[in-house]
Design a protein that fits this description.
The chain has 149 residues and is mainly alpha-helical. Helix content is 77%, strand content 0%.
Amino acid sequence: MRAIEIARAAWGGTMLLTPATTLSTIHGLKIDTTSTTVARVLGARQVVQAGLSGIAPSPEILALGVWVDLAHAASAFGLAVADRSRVRAGIADGAVALAWAGFGYRDLVRSKATPPSHDRRRDELARAVLGLAPGGGPLLRISQRHRQV
């Protein structure tokens, strides 16, 4: 399993199991029900993404993970702009999401993915989602280049 997925699962588990600590320490938020719920949902997303990426993700799975992390970062930065009381939380969460996207992109362009013969249903699903997602086309093309190598 890629070290990043172990770290992602640990980060997600921390947000899922101890959201109050994460929110107050890292995000600097006053703890409320909405913040706790959002932290748990985002933590669960990280754990699921780590599990779906698995031991040896294909180029398509890496590309989709990058897209999901970039979408997460955009929404977090949007929160920072839209809600003045959550600026620090939005910036911190967006920065973490950008870091995850950067690690995934690095692995994608360095061809640290499953060999090209690898093909599964989740890869087909990832190709379909990237083909429809705003901004997913460039990531899909990068993944296809690495599949053909």
